[in-house]
Amino acid sequence: MKRPQNWSVLLGAAFLMATSAVGPGFLTQTTVFTQSLGASFGFVILLSILLDIGVQLNVWRVIAISEKRAQDIANAVLPALGAFIAFLIVLGGFAFNIGNVGGAGLGLNVLTGLSVEAGAVISAAVAIGIFLVREAGKLMDRFAQLLGALMIGLIVYVAWVSSPPLTEAAIRTFAPAQISFTAIITLVGGTVGGYITFAGGHRLLDAGVKGKEALGQVTTSAVSGISLASVIRVLLFLATLGVLQQGKVLNPENPPASVFELAAGTFGYKLFGVMMLAAAVTSVVGSAYTSVSFIKSFHPRIAQNENWFIIGFIFISTVIFVFIGKPVALLVWAGLLNGFVLPVTLGTMLIAAHKKSLMGTYRHPWLLTLFGVLVVLLMTWMAGATLWQQVNGLLA
């Protein structure tokens, strides 16, 4: 019998994935690469969207059918592989979360004048508050939906007032003047790399959306998550392009803020504060929740005290930020790091997709498998080429 749609859970998972992706790093990466590639960045966004969808559909379907979390699936493919992947995911999650906490502090600094450190502590306290509630999962879903909708509304306004060159953007999206492997791998890594691609899949599993009968719902939620993140990416790209087309120069210390301020003046700068705060706090929640979901099957006490581990994750990230700080470059490099992790995690999921011991009588579509293999090969190649460029740059 077909399972009834639970739109609250499906949208919650989609928004959790999308808002986990749309953090300070996402905003920084988009503006930095638009500045370097111009309208040709549209091609990078288009290619990354196609790759993102292929990754999400493969990973989320395997999680739903196996009814297991990614680390348990990996251990079934190769003993100890799950622990290795969990280590990579948690490491990347910490790198992103330090940036997320700092971004939230910056947002409050813009809005209220509080120091970035004080803003970070307050924002972390709000995120922690969600996991002190008994129905934390439902509250997390609603929180992601409300702030996700707010972010879309804000970026629509800024894109509109910046008057972007739509014709040029459309042409260069399909006929780019230049292509950057670094930009592609960073965007894919920042949208579905590391912990992000598993955020919604693990949330659906925790909410009981699993099994063959749930595949339609899983597909809807996965595509919705990518679509939401992509809409924000495209709008920010257009807003940045519009500002640059007017001959204005972005502040290298805070490129996204420059876009909002140059497009809409002081009011735009305040809107950036709201956007950054919303993006950062939702990413703090998504990063902490998903990172802990990767270790909670390793010991029963972690699962029994999941919310307290999530709170600890947020607390440690905040302490590291307050005492060490975080430059803009870390946000770009965190996305690049996730791009390197993606071939490992996706490759593992593709092998699992064809193991009867995990998938039972389910037959994973060969078209999805081939697309997934293509993504693994493409991301491995681009990761290698990017690493070679970075090494040559250091040696030069």
From TrEMBL:
Domain of life: Bacteria
Entry membrane topology: Multi-pass membrane protein
Chief subcellular location: membrane
Spans through the membrane: 37-55, 76-98, 110-131, 143-161, 181-201, 222-244, 271-295, 307-324, 330-353, 365-388
Subcellular location: Membrane
Keywords, alphabetical: Membrane, Transmembrane, Transmembrane helix
Name of the protein: Divalent metal cation transporter
Source organism: Rufibacter sediminis
